[in-house]
Amino acid sequence: MHGSRQTEWVIGRALSLGFSLCGVAPAEKFPELERMPEWLSRGYAGQMRYLEDPRRESPGRVLEDARSIVVCALNYGTGSPYTAQALAASSADMPRGWISRYAWGEDYHRVLGEKLENLITAMRGEFSDPFAARAYVDTGPIVERVAAKHAGLGWLAKNTCLIHPELGSWLFLGVIITTLDLAPSLPPGQPPQPDLCGQCTLCIDACPTSALVEPYMLDARRCISYLTIEHRGSLQEELRPAIGAHVFGCDICQDVCPYNRKAPIPSFPEFEPRRAELFAPSLEWLVSLSEREYQEMFRGSAMKRAKYQGLVRNACVALGNAAPRLAPPARERVRALLARLSASADSVIAEHAAWALTHVEEGC
Prior knowledge:
Number of strands: 10
Order of helices and strands: HEHEHEHEHEEEHEEHHEHHHHHHH
Largest sheet: 4 strands, antiparallel
Structural class: alpha+beta
Shape: elongated
Strand order of the largest sheet: 1-2-7-4
């Protein structure tokens, strides 16, 4: 079995394992990555120093003699309300926060990682020639969304997400880089999926922090997802009000995308909220968590990425932003919680609690 027949078999097997999409791209330099040095030089990566890994410039630097990249996508969309609808449940008596929908359920790194390893095992059983293969789910120096574009799975949108014309952008991506010489999903000379964003700028217009500095260009330092998950330490004061109720990630640029409004809703129980508390959680509950409770609550969750300090910091900011809408009983409860946290031995938590406390007291 060679070339296109191998590719057809790999794609068929990936789909049988539960992936929503699968395609193959050649392990070569992608033209989109030529702008990476400029993006980094502007400082747009913030504290994400791992993005400076020179292996990101070419898949061939990740695995010796690499020939192909198998790209798999899993749709994590759910029938649950979008951000604005969910936060409408936030009341003057019960201020609530927002957790990005990708983190409601099981850790996608594990779910996709297991499927990719199962695919590699199946490939070894099917193909007689020896080959090397490595699987990555946001854990290696492969830029998955760019590889996905060249595997024919969609286009790179103005919000920098990959969009599939039928499935939208609620997609987890994982890759297998291999020395197998698989035929690319796109025949020679056939361009990738055309950009269908057209004149639409809904994602750019909706971003609360103006992180999309121009179409297809994201300044991560202003992105709410980056600020609430990747950024360590103190958050810039001028950005705190725009963070709103977000405590982990942000879905706004995807919420407003017309392609997501039309996308089918899959059925993956792994990605539904594994605890009721994780859907529009109570901010008072979040800031009251001890570190031990945090570790137990978010074991096996992608939310561990923010760490305890980051999550409590974010919840303090969200409470400060909710201050003008608090009813008197809730205001007194929140004041007491923030006063306690402002005396925390953790200087980052103490700083953000004090900032929020000021906003609560100003509203009295």
